[in-house]
Design goal:
It contains nine helices and 18 strands. The protein is of the alpha+beta class and about 375 residues long. Strand 10 and strand 11 form a beta hairpin. The protein binds flavin-adenine dinucleotide (FAD).
Length: about 375
């Protein structure tokens, strides 16, 4: 293995980049194997796109979360239960997705002859049967964050991987702090990797795949309505002429008279004039919701906006093996983009798969000689 060069760098067995659901799950599982783990997160709080959203109607998930009632979802949840040590009760609801057209609701049966660029992403949400869960991503990341005992650095952005031969030997945080780890688990958007690894570390065709893939940025609107708008449990696929669709669901009306709905539409990643596009997408969501439910914004209590760059798209079939890059031997990428199951389910299943590949903790020379010992990391 390549030699670590900087004597000042902090040393760990495993560096995990990104404290969303995937990174937190990785941190727990790898810590349990006896690894000395450092989890870094660029934001002040953990959770990523699964973090809690506080609203005037109580806590909600950060943006729309839909769990299709499929064997894969059950498998992902079964594994998750073993990590968070908690049962996740599942209630299956059946409600055919709806769309709104010509002044009335109709079953959603696809987009017909209309050109819809985000169709493959949208279809993953438009399910007939989905699961309502006793706990949701916001609860899982909270529990994982509370029970993680390894080293943690928040407000720490991975800005550069220094590669020697085929190994990442150092990682720079916020441009200056140096971290050494025998292995790196990358649980942040993989589209960042070409910039982080720099020229020459990965072949041009790999760089191209990560740069130019079909990625989308999600624009999300959570609405707290001042009154009960509908008791429909159906996934709504709302679309005007020449528009990309808006997907959303209504939560059950609350006893205090409030009702929450969550909506999402997608814009191409890396648009030159992104601010304008986001503003346009938000207007579109509101227009489509108002068209379907005229009184939806009467007595509006709250709106929450969330924009997640590059959150949707696919890298399926682009890398062999998935989640690894050629010529970088100690990097594992955990991302739903490598899964044929989109979104949270894909993220959980990919994390499980990659963790299976990582296996037990690496054995150090000193441990072989002296037996196991505890390493305390300065956070
Ligand atoms: C709005 C929205 C709606 C969704 N709806 C659904 C749905 O309905 N159903 C469903 O199943 N799934 C849904 N998903 C997807 C699901 O939330 C994600 O697939 C899953 O949570 C991804 O988790 P993750 O940990 O891989 O990534 P993330 O949650 O994106 O976490 C990545 C973390 O890495 C951090 N980070 C990024 N770059 C760096 C860096 N360089 N250094 C350090 N830290 C970094 C980020 O701050 C973030 O905390 C949705 C996602 C979004 C955003």
């Amino acid at each position: 293995m390549a030699q670590i060069k900087s004597p000042k760098a902090q040393e760990f067995d495993t560096l995990i980049v990104g404290g969303g659901l995937s990174g937190l799950l990785s941190a727990h599982v790898l810590e349990a194997t006896g690894r000395n783990v450092l989890l870094i997160e660029s934001m002040e709080t953990l959770g990523g796109s699964s973090r809690i959203g506080q609203t005037k109607a109580g806590p909600v998930d950060h943006g729309l979360k839909i769990f299709p009632a499929t064997p894969e979802t059950h498998a992902a949840l079964d594994w998750l239960e073993t990590i968070i040590d908690e049962k996740i009760e599942r209630t299956e609801i059946e409600a055919a997705p709806v769309t709104y057209d010509d002044g009335k609701f109709k079953p959603y049966v696809g987009f017909g002859s209309a050109t819809v660029e985000t169709a493959s992403e949208v279809e993953a949400y438009a399910v007939e049967k989905r699961l309502l869960l006793s706990s949701t991503p916001k609860d899982w990341v909270q529990k994982l964050a509370q029970t993680y005992t390894g080293a943690l650095m928040t407000q720490s952005y991975a800005t550069k991987f220094i590669v020697d031969d085929t190994f990442i030997i150092e990682t720079l945080l916020n441009g200056t702090k140096r971290i050494c780890a025998q292995e790196v688990v990358f649980a942040a958007p993989p589209q960042q990797l070409p910039a982080l690894l720099g020229d020459g570390a990965i072949p041009a065709r790999v760089r191209q795949k990560l740069h130019k893939g079909d990625f989308w940025t999600s624009v999300n609107l959570d609405i707290v309505h001042g009154h009960a708008v509908t008791d429909s449990q159906a996934v709504h696929v709302l679309k005007g002429a020449n528009e990309e669709p808006t997907i959303g669901v209504f939560h059950a009306p609350q006893a205090d008279g409030l009702q929450v709905s969550q909506w999402l539409t997608l814009i191409p990643r890396d648009q030159v004039d992104e601010e304008e596009l986001v503003a346009g997408a938000l207007k579109q969501i509101k227009r489509q919701v108002k068209r379907a439910y005229e009184s939806a914004f009467d007595g509006l209590v709250q709106e929450r906006i969330l924009v997640v760059p590059g959150s949707h798209g696919s890298l399926v079939g682009q890398f062999d093996p998935a989640g690894r890059l050629p010529k970088i031997d100690n990097l594992w990428i955990v991302s739903a983009l490598f899964s044929s199951h989109r979104n949270t389910v894909g993220a959980i299943l990919e994390t499980q798969r990659i963790l299976g590949e990582l296996g037990p903790a690496p054995v150090h020379e000193t441990e072989r000689q002296l037996g196991p010992h505890t390493v305390t990391a300065e956070a």
